[in-house]
Amino acid sequence: MLELLFSALPELIAVTPVLLIGLLPSALLVMLALSMGNTTQIRRAVRAMGEGCDPEPLLTLSMKTLKRYGGSRNPRHRNLLFSAHINAATALYNLGRVQEALTHLDVPELEGYPLPSQAVCLLNRAAVYCDTERPDAMEDALARAEGLIRTPSFPQNQRQAFASICHSDRLALEMLQNGPTPELEAAYQSLLLQAGGESQRVGIRFQLAKCALARGDSAAAREHLEYIKAHGNKLFTRQRAEDLLSTMDH
Question: What is d(CA 62, CA 203) in angstroms, rounded to the nearest whole number?
């Protein structure tokens, strides 16, 4: 789920009325485009999530949109509501409210929505399944998203960003299935060098902390966890880091 998304944001805003994308087991990253109301509010919510590690503005904006248009029968509001549900899921996930997030992603039939929107929903389902340790469900959602991205009609200018997210999700799935390995640690170190937002750095560092603990390097693990504690703000990953630090101190 990586911050290539934020670097692609201006182009996406100009091209499509979709939003968001996420994924590392510790934090979803968000790729927003114009989908819900005021442009300034959307940009502020993106900035708060990506740089301030604060999902609450995104949740507030999403729920306001759902409340306002939730009863609408206007076909033009269909995609807007879908985007609002995905945004709400992203915010809830990052606040640690995983089961609530899943209810917003529980769309029985994705067909008919724009392909990037479908891929976003599937990738965020995969994140939730990773967090709830359901590797088979995560594999299924991820494979479906990868299939959509390979579809010839998938927007060419968005394909690379989505492919990068799928790559990081594959790393998360491997971590879930096999535990930390030196190869995974090297891959996450590489991703950390490319990170473009604080929420992304927080998520990657949590994975690196687990890798460091697995090889017995408590000093390196502590460095990552202390960084998360200092910069994670309202992300649930910060609470996880504090919990790990607490166990290391006893």
Answer: 23
C-alpha separations of 224 from 46, 148, 173, 185, 206 in Å = 24, 35, 21, 13, 7
Quote the CA–CA distance of 132 and 130 in Å, as a whole number. Answer: 5
Quickly count: other Cβ atoms within 10 Å of residue 66's Cβ.
18
Token pair for 33? 């485009």
3-state helix, strand, coil split of the chain in percent (to 5) is 70, 0, 25
Residue closest to 199 by CA, chosen among 166, 245, 238:
238
Q: What is the pLDDT of residues 154-213, one digit of tens each?
A: 999 889 888 888 999 999 999 999 999 999 999 999 999 988 789 989 999 999 999 999
Closest alpha carbon to 38 in 3, 6, 18, 65: 65
Using CB atoms within 10 A of its CB, is residue 29 exposed (0-12), middle (13-18) or buried (19+)? buried
Rounded to whole angstroms, how far apart are CA atoms 220 and 212? 6
pLDDT at 4: 26
pTM (2 decimals)?
Answer: 0.84
How large is the average pLDDT for residues 231-240?
96
